[in-house]
Design brief:
Layout (H helix, E strand, L loop, with lengths): L18 E13 L13 E2 L1 E11 L5 E7 L2 E2 L5 E2 L3 E4 L2 H10 L4 E3 L1 E4 L4 E5 L4 E24 L5 E22 L3 H4 L3 E15 L3 E3 L3
Parallel strand pairs: 7-8
Antiparallel strand pairs: 1-3, 1-13, 2-5, 3-4, 4-7, 5-6, 9-10, 10-11, 11-12, 12-13, 12-14
Length: about 210
């Protein structure tokens, strides 16, 4: 998609996974728009869009911030994200995403607090969120699976495991861009904020199918 186009190839080389990191984040989800499936993977999918803003306080490439979204989830025993849109404010992180996990990372500018008002801006797009946490802080432990399509019909699959604390939140979203406005719904959605957490993203492996 246009938001992920990048002809640059000379990004600083990043270390291989695993990538441990301390994180704060806002995540939200909504029913996919009618146009979402054309930007997602082929095959069996779930009509749910999942997106997040992440503040990496430390990592193997230093601190950085990130926005990513999956138009529809891959259907599996544990649903997986196929990510056509992801942006960061770290050049080594761009290399790491593209080299280690086949994530189409691009550079963007970020501003604000990920647990409150936050924004990401690229050359042709923007995403802004306003998170309103509610209720008590609770423990969280689990993981997110990424399954990126590669030529030949296979996917590269990796898991990011997280342990920390979270709160329920309502997340108000605005998105503009050549495709983002078609599948990342504006408005207020159910979500959570990760108030503190420790995450580790492991190496990917090629699988012939989900």
């Amino acid at each position: 998609m246009p938001e992920s186009e990048d002809e640059r190839t000379d990004y600083p080389v990043s270390p291989p996974p695993p990538w441990p990191a301390s994180v704060r984040a806002a995540l939200w989800w909504h029913r996919s728009t009618p146009d979402a499936s054309q930007y997602g993977p082929t095959g069996a999918t779930l009509p749910i869009t999942l997106a997040m803003m992440v503040d990496y306080l430390d990592s193997p490439v230093g601190p950085y911030r990130e926005v990513l979204a999956s138009p529809v989830l891959r259907r599996d025993l544990i649903p997986a994200m196929a990510v056509p849109f992801i942006a960061v404010d770290s050049e080594p992180s761009v290399h790491g995403g593209r080299e280690h996990w086949k994530l189409p990372k691009v550079l963007a500018k970020f501003d604000g607090d990920v647990l409150g008002d936050f924004s990401a801006t690229g050359a042709r797009w923007s995403v802004a969120t306003s998170a309103a946490p509610k209720g008590p802080e609770l423990p969280i432990a689990g993981g997110l699976t990424f399954a990126q399509p590669i030529p030949g019909g296979a996917v590269e699959r990796a898991t990011a495991r997280l342990r920390g604390k979270f709160r329920y939140a309502r997340v108000t979203v605005a998105a503009e861009g050549p495709t983002l406005s078609r599948w990342l719904r504006p408005g207020t959605h159910h979500g959570i904020v990760i108030t503190s957490g420790r995450m580790s993203t492991g190496a990917s492996r090629v699988v012939s199918r989900m």
